[in-house]
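Researcher: We're teaching a course module on how sequence relates to structure. For the next exercise, students receive a sequence and then see the predicted structure as tokens, so they can try to spot secondary structure elements on their own. Here is the exercise chain.
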Amino acid sequence: MNNFFIKFLIATFLSTSLCCAAPRTERGYFVSPDGNDNNDGRSVESPWKSLEKVNASKFKPGDTIRFEGGRIFESNVLQYQSALLISDSGIPDSPIVYTSYGGLRATIKADSIGIMCSGKEYVEFRSINVSGSFNPFDQRNSTAYNNIGLWLINHNSVKKLRGIKIDSCKFSGLQTNAISVSPLNERSPEAGGYDGLEITNCRIDSIGHIGIIINWSASYLHSLSSFPVTNISIRNCEISRVTGFYNKFIPGSRRHDTYTGNGIFISHADSVLIERNLVYSCGGSGFDTIIGSGPSGIEAAASRRITCQYNEVYDIKASTGSDGHGIHFGDGVQNSTMQYNYSHDNDGPGFSFHCYGNSYPLANSNNVLRYSISARNGRKSVYNACEVLVSSFNPKTTDNISVYNNTIHSVRQNSIEMSVIEVERSATNISFRNNLIISDDPDVFIINIHPLQNPTSVVLQGNLYWSKNGSYKFREGNDTFYTYESWQGRTSRSVMCEVLNGKNSGVIEDPKISLPTNILNLNNSYELSSMTEFRIDASSVASGKGLNLKKLFGLDPGKNDFFGNSILEVDKFSIGANQSPAP
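Model: And here is the predicted structure for the students to work with:
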């Protein structure tokens, strides 16, 4: 085989390798531990050797920097505490791309910051590992590295940075965060920040603090006229074993307000898509002495227009007996939707809406939970042992929350007080409609509405309630009711219990739904619609017996049910997350 043909094969392989799926480049550079920094770096035969050489080089739009796959790259001379410092920006249609070659991922060693991208745009990271030495499972004896996998920073006071893409990368062994996005321009959120950020197909495991965090550094109580991070998407990522900090890594003054152990945490963002992610086994830190707020598998705060859909979240662990939520919309989330998600086997609620802030300027308001499945949650959380939670510490801070067409299945797993649906404190204008609500245990409250701190409006209409042993418990305020009829017939100014136009709107009957008998982990968000569990058929009392929410209340049901069945032309809606053929 002649040399020309060998070079042709190498060039063909590089052009078709999944690690090199970047736009057509003006120049390509290769880096290998077997290379030499005196080489020109322009071919596999003459690669550069070190990260120091890459950091010292200037790149142009369209350039691709390729690290040899299967090899480890470590910098002895850190640039701004980072192993790999991104020094230049690309332009639209000609980004600067950092990737691997040879079919495997290259690894950037990160015992400080793995990759820092400060003030740059149109940069893409594809098929790269970032790995540190932090052991989140033995934090009592672990060295504090304070390392971050990939850190995006924008100090720019003029414009948002655009064109950042992170695809098919893997992050592990990091004390702080895998991916951290910091729009640091506190004086002008309207000007700084990021737009169009994409994080796709990434694998995150064994992290100390938070998997993916997007967080403005300004005061949490800042009243925003616009948002520093816009039009972002986090899709098809797998995030696991983000343990949360052990208390020795959190300053004492912050130990009670530090969110830690979250798979994904988003704040100060507008127009966010969180889709088809798998988040599991996060939080808890492995110690009973973990201190701090959180965690949640997926959490958002101070943001608007979030669509969180087709995600599976499970085994999120509570800290100090609180939280451990599956998917959580917190302080200041507005005009956002959770839909088509499967949240199960978490210590806290499967889905929750809550506002903590006493003087927070943005309410948790105008949010929707629909066509999702919540099952076997509330395993451990002392304060929020339930499937679905709507709560607020202060009047008018959690308002106008619509929960409809969900399948909610509670399985008692401990001796603490549990509820299927829980409403607390000062939440206002809350509605639950067309939900299929099931309990396996007579001691679980089907509905638990705590004493409300101000006159409010909680509406339950068109729901199906089923206790598998025939015993029921409903609570409103300080009163407990042991039959549906007594609960529905009580007098209350603030809660409407299954009455529509003066008639009963609820159903008490076995829905004949297929339920899993054990923990059901799919571990593939693309298989959610193919589940055989949580389905009803045409013979079920839930089939075709739901309210037409659009006609009656102007609520948009969306395009399809949890299992992908179209509901665009449906006249008779079913109760729950499965729109079965009407009888």
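Model: If you want an answer key for the exercise: Residues 1-25, 252-257, 286-292 have pLDDT under 50 and may be disordered. The chain has one domain: 3-459.
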